[in-house]
């Protein structure tokens, strides 16, 4: 079960990393991909430790089972800390990203900023800061929600500032709640491992 949790952490971390990487350049104030990277790292560690725990259970090794329990404790604590940090800082991150987008939108004469705005608008299906009206009558192709060539097309009606806020809120909740959910499963695994380690130790004492 812990192995499956490890795989789930890796997959969710990788998916969120790909999505968040598209907007990471908006603001340098926060490293928004850090939680996703940590999920991938923790998922890999959980998978390896779960394999170690299985070996300990099969071999009925008190040492291996106890070591497995110790590392599970560390992982549970680390994942809960990540979830708490995400919940605490998500508001500040949203404000920083929103301000960052407003800045690069206002400085879109710079080609790098213009390309980043286009990427965000296409990826998040939004247009302008508050709406497509921020572009006037000459909005770019990345604002088009249907077929056609800008400006002769139907633009996205939602602005990117509010869309970024929704996206970050959703991504943050996924990362935080998945971390908590996996931590709960690991806690159950920890209890089972401790019981098994105690049973192995008692068995060794009886036969020694």
From TrEMBL:
It is a multi-pass membrane protein. Disulfide bonds join 126-160, 127-144. It is found in: Membrane. Pfam families: Tetraspanin. GO terms for cellular component: plasma membrane. Keywords: Disulfide bond, Membrane, Transmembrane, Transmembrane helix. The chain crosses the membrane at residues 36-58, 70-90, 174-200. Gene3D superfamilies: Tetraspanin. It comes from the Eukaryota. Belongs to the tetraspanin (TM4SF) family. PANTHER family: IP01817P-RELATED, TETRASPANIN. This is Tetraspanin. It comes from Anopheles braziliensis.
């Amino acid at each position: 079960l812990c192995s499956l949790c490890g795989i789930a952490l890796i997959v969710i971390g990788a998916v969120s990393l790909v999505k968040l990487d598209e907007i990471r350049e908006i603001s340098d104030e926060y490293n928004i991909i850090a939680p996703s990277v940590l999920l991938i790292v923790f998922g890999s560690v959980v998978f390896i430790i779960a394999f170690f725990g299985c070996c300990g259970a099969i071999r009925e090794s008190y040492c291996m089972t106890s070591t497995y329990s110790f590392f599970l404790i560390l992982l549970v604590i680390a994942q809960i800390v990540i979830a708490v940090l995400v919940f605490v800082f998500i508001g500040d991150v949203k404000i920083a990203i929103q301000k960052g987008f407003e800045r690069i939108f206002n400085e879109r004469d710079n080609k790098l900023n213009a390309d980043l705005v286009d990427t965000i608008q296409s990826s998040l299906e939004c247009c302008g800061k508050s709406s497509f009206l921020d572009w006037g009558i000459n909005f770019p192709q990345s604002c088009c929600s249907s077929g056609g060539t800008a400006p002769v097309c139907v633009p996205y009606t939602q602005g990117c500032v509010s869309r970024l806020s929704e996206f970050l809120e959703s991504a943050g909740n996924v990362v935080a709640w998945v971390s908590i959910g996996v931590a709960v499963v690991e806690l159950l695994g920890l209890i089972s491992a401790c019981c098994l380690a105690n049973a192995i130790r008692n068995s060794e004492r009886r036969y020694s």
